[in-house]
Amino acid sequence: SDNGQTILIHTVPNGIYQSRIRAHKLDVNGQLLWGTNGVMIQNNGQMASYQVPEVEPDGNNGALISWYDGRAMNNLSSSFVQRISSTGSLYFPADGSEGSLAAQRNKFYPQVAFNLATQETYLFWMETEPDQNQNGIFGQKFSPSGNRLWGSSGKVFIPLSAPNTKSISDLSSQIGTEKVYLFYLESAGSGLNTKT
User: Of 21, 82, 110, 176, which has the fewest beta carbons less than 10 angstroms from its beta carbon?
Assistant: First the structure.
């Protein structure tokens, strides 16, 4: 963050298998600057306790946080993103902006990239059908206030595969000069890596 201070993002247990996400800002002496409760990033408690949120700097002393959770309570997960400023203000709605509203789909392992010049946020995720036998890569672009700019279901980068024929993993995204780069591993149904 700024002035040698650090924004710390961490999970908070909420029952046996669920967590929430909280942000704190610490000064150079480790003192909490946003109070003992910090700022809640995701407060619905429907994130799996084993999940680690993805955190990236926004280039303006703030941070971007992405995760997936099951807040719809329908045995499906969806990907979300939030941006927090160096003062603890949230840019997007409480509990984050959802990448896609597509029904009957899981949206796992979100990755985030940020364009400082346009203040636009990019979110990418692995999408599956409910049984998780088909997968692809989808994405969304958000306005500075967290509105979806690529429609309610986002943009398709790799369409869902035929059942049990492809596995996609290890998504990573980076912002470049006027471009966003997305990296991933793709393997055949056997599990051997065939493409990166």
Answer: 176
| Mean pLDDT for back-to-back runs of 10 residues, the chain (196 residues) | 94 88 96 96 90 94 96 94 98 98 96 96 96 95 98 97 89 89 85 54
CB 186 within 8 A of CB 167: yes
Q: Name residue 145's amino acid.
A: S
One-letter-per-residue 3-state SS of the chain: CCCCCEEEEEEEECCCCEEEEEEEEECCCCCECCCCCCEEEEEEEEEECCCCCEEEECCCCCEEEEEEECCCCCCCCEEEEEEECCCCCECCCCCCEECCCCCCCEEEEEEEEEECCCCEEEEEEEEECCCCCCEEEEEEEECCCCCECCCCCCEEEECCCCCCCEEEEEEEEEEECCEEEEEEEEEECCCCEEEC
CA–CA separation, 42 vs 7, rounded Å?
A: 16
Q: Residue 141 in contact with residue 180, Cβ under 8 Å?
A: no
CA 58/CA 70 separation, integer angstroms: 26
Cβ 80 vs Cβ 110: under 8 Å: yes
Report yes or no: 171 and 182 within 8 Å, Cβ to Cβ. Answer: yes
Asked if 157 contacts 149 with a C-beta cutoff of 8 angstroms, the reply is no
